[in-house]
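Hey, resending since the last one bounced:
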Amino acid sequence: MQKFTFLCLSFLISSVGHGIAGFAVTLWVWAQTDSATALVLTGFFYKLPIVAASLFAGIVVDRANRKYLMILSEVASIIAALLVLMLYLSGHLAIWHLYAAALAKGGFDQFSSLAYRASIGLLVAPSDYVRALSMTWATGSLAGIAVPAAAGMLYPTLGLGGILPISLAIVAFSTAILSALKIPQPTKLDEQKLNAKTKGWASHVALLWAEVTFGLRYIWRSAGLRSLVVITTVFWGVETLGGAVFDPMILARSGGSAEVLGTIGTVWGIGGLSAAAWLSLRGGFRSNVQGMLVGSVGVGLAGIAFGLGQGLSVWLPAVFLMSIAFPLLSGSERALLTAAAPVDVQGRVFAGRDLVNDMAEGVAMLLAGVLSDNLLEPTMQSPGPLSTLFAPILGTDAGAGMALLFVGSAIAMLLVGIFGFRMPQLRLIETTAKVEP
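The structure tokens again:
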């Protein structure tokens, strides 16, 4: 666990660096546009190359040096941030530049994310998967505590041009720590099996296609994995639909307050850290399937309360409860995936899962922007059946339409969790052996 602990430390420092830059960019874009769509598109352009990269990232992660892939992602992020900083200081920064930076960064981050997740199975014992994943969530939560508080306080004084250099220095430091680590690589047993099975194929294109689709085919051959990917794709799709308007909804309902957004982010980090600490000590639920579904229900219930709130008195306890449920959900889900696939094919299996999920999330992001700015916001702020029905609980001020979308997505998450308890196929993932590659 020592190597994994240092890897988590690098991840924590990197998350702080990227987090303060992301917080500053969010506030800058909102100040320029007052548009949920503009913020959502930043996330969409980040997600777009991830979908494309998922086709090949698993192949690369299972064959290339995983540490170098993580370093490459950090270097790409540093270059993108430097270009944004230079454009800002020269007075030429436009929204589309941020979209381009997000587009360039997203693909590299997918390689890094898969390399990190696939390394867990090589660095810790299977019995410690939930604890290791909880440590990962804990580092993200620690960053979540520090980033909003620091960035919310610094942004009014330093602005985007002052925060980006700080972010660059922090990410460079985390990259130096990562460079000093030794991360083991998987054996190539699976590659030998694959070559034996495909010997005699005339077309290199066919061989490449077999590699690209390996993760999806592996998932399809397991009834438990199929059920897991289906239910998580639906969950993360509807979660993204509401989550995409999380920041703009808060900014719209708080008059663009960096302090309010920062306070909510800090409480989110405290709740996530508390849950991750509990999971690390306890090791999660006896059944990871049960832990995942309990987390889904918890996120849905807390999300409904958050969307109905119109101030910190409701937002803070609701976001605290949400942040407790998310580590349980995400940690259990990733532990199930990690345990269900051999370490030498995890890159491709994770990439197959990510491909399906990221496509659903990308569509949800686009829908969130269109629905918020073009339908729900104007409808809730003008007389009509929709505003008459929901105005008594959501109001008619700016952000009411986004709140309606957020509550709707939270209800859907709650239903997904409840439905999951009635899926007997889902429990197969914990009772069947790994599929033979």
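The CA atoms of residues 79 and 270 lie 31 Å apart.

Sorry for the duplicate.
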